Amino acid sequence: MKPTVKVLLVAVAAGVLGAAAGLWFNGPGPLLRSELGQRALHEVLEASAPAPPAGVPVAERGGLVPSFSLPDLAGRNVSVPAAWSGRPVLVNLWASWCGPCIREMPELDRFATRQGATGVQVIGIALDEREAVLRFLESTPVGYPILLDTPGPGDAGVRLGNPSGVLPYTALIDARGRLVKEKIGPFEAGEVEAWLD
Prior knowledge:
This protein has 7 helices and 7 strands, in the order H-H-H-E-E-E-H-E-H-E-H-E-E-H. By secondary structure, it is of the alpha/beta class. The chain folds into 2 domains: 1-48, no CATH class; 56-196, Glutaredoxin, CATH 3.40.30. The chain is globular and about 60 Å long. InterPro entries: Redoxin, Thioredoxin-like_sf, Thioredoxin_domain, Thioredoxin_ResA/DsbE_sf. This is TlpA family protein disulfide reductase.
């Protein structure tokens, strides 16, 4: 490769990393909320993330989401996304200690309520301890299902295409079980519907 091409590639990579870091540390702006910005941020974070453990399947945009099971708050195992086969599923990964996660939950709950029994199914996956989740939900209840997982290199976020483990993280799975969209960071008021379009 010619030296000028190498310099150009390094400059472009540095620019993308700088823009992503600026967006990350200075709060979400219009670029970060755009599909292009989200894809760029995802690429940057994925490039620096550790490899998932051997045998942990990771969903890729456009591909089928490998099924996995997690307990709900009552301890019953639920298969994701198979439990909602035939419906689009919006999976939101969060934790009770994550400020941006907490701020977006009322918006996700409003969206879920408007979907009814046939629209997009919202589910939350808490990467947290059960007791902390139950305490949190006493003060901030939501009407959509909450599942539990332990944070780590093979958790549900990694399986859903978020190997960097950034929270909140949202994945949209279509009615056929394919990962069609990913969002790093919280939803602002009224943003869920726009994101789905």
